[in-house]
Amino acid sequence: MHCLNVMPGALLPGKDKGVTILVGGKGVLKIGASMGTVVIPFMKMESDDDFEKLNDLSRSILDFFAENALEHERTGEMIERIGLVNFLEGLDIEIDPSMIVHPRTNPYFRSDDWDEEAEKWFERKAAA
Question: What is the 3-state secondary structure (H, E, C) of 46-66?
């Protein structure tokens, strides 16, 4: 709560309204709940076209799951088995630095090609 007291404006709701989409979370009694993987950090939800994009993405995820999951396998387990990169490529979603699996433990940081990937990301943001 110290952060909220020092910077009260840091956590105010923004002007953009939308959704963050996580896939593969589950709540298990013996192990405990696990957070899903953030596959879409932010998607605006202002028009009917935005809702149609969300619906198309949902159908794509279900179709991908139907084609690639093993019997009795959950979505998060499938993503772990085939790899997040393969999952995102199968859905034709570009990797974004805001995607996370576990808060503060897996920010998808790879330093071997960091400069090239950062340049690609900045170019995509400039084009949008």
Answer: CCHHHHHHHHHHHHHHHHHHH
Residue 110 neighbours by CB under 8 Å, 6+ apart: 117
Topology of domain 17-127, per CATH?
Sulfite Reductase Hemoprotein; domain 1 (3.30.413)
Tens digits of residue pLDDT in 47-69: 999 999 999 999 999 999 999 99
Q: How many CA atoms lie within 13 A of 80 on its CB side?
A: 11
pLDDT attached to residue 108:
52
Under a CB-based contact definition with an 8 Å cutoff, are residues 2 and 62 in contact?
A: no
Cβ-Cβ contacts under 8 Å for 124 (sequence gap 6 or more) = 94
